[in-house]
Amino acid sequence: MMGDLLQFQEVKKYFPVKRSLVEGLFGVKPRHVRAVDGVTFGIQEGEVFVLVGESGSGKTTLGKLGLRVYVPTSGRVVFDGKAIAELKGDELKEFKRSSQMVYQDPVAALNPRVRVGDAVAEPLGFHGIGTKEEQREKAFKMMKRVGFDPPEEFYSRFPHELSGGQRQRVVIARALILGPKFVVADEPVAMLDVSIRAQILKLLFDLKKEMSLTLLIITHDIAIAKYFADHVGIMYLGQLVERAERGEMFRNPMHPYTKALFSSVPIPDPEANKKRMIIKGEIPSAITPPQGCRFHPRCPFVFDRCRTEEPALVRRSEGHLVSCHLYDEAGREAEKAAA
Ligand code: SF4
Asked: What is the pTM assigned to this prediction?
């Protein structure tokens, strides 16, 4: 995939489930949560890739795999042409400088006993960049850039002395102070009041342009994908089920799960609301995912083949990949017969 800064290549991440004493005594086989289960896609340099899915779809785990917070159980994550699990020494340090995360919850992300200016400067100290005075100067500049004006007035405050939006600005400043190439923003506005979400998103996208960042946004909010993405990926139960350029994805969603996600957004039209496609039930367990298509227990278009055969992620048009049997010839026939 030419031009990709980051690639996930058949990436799996399984977490072992702790066995109880009784299960151990009876020799119950170890089980795993298949948080990410064979994901392949690339993120182009300079683009905004928005990954959408319900809680439990594996999108946060995938984001952490992209930053080497987790190492894959199998498969490879490649950054700038190199498998990140194999990086060591200076190359690993350089990768850690080049890739950062903006966390969902600024309260949890900030140490309540560390002044916010020191929190912003901290990564510079960690990477041994500049003197204390230079670190402080850089932190002032970064704080000013994210909206603290004058920064001197805020530098010595503690996180609890700031509003939710200001705390998230601190988290963004700290993630960007090292001048990274790649940033994962995990639900960056989910914990904020609706009134300030747009401001924080605008700030993030202004900084993305200014600093030529490549951005992976993880969200359950379709509107973020609709207005900010270059490419959109849809995850369901550890797998990527659809991927397309933003315009194509919203003009022509193909996977039934994507259609249901999009139609779950309320619109002020009672007639159109009656036609909304509602997905029934909860997302199944990632320890024992359903056989065949993982979406089949909830899919309104399910037919026999879906219960036994896992659909592959197949290119259906230029840059548009979907994993659903409906678009194969047999699937079309089955759909007609069931209609
Ligand atoms: Fe639905 Fe079958 Fe397509 Fe899965 S493969 S999304 S069950 S139609």
From this structure: 0.91
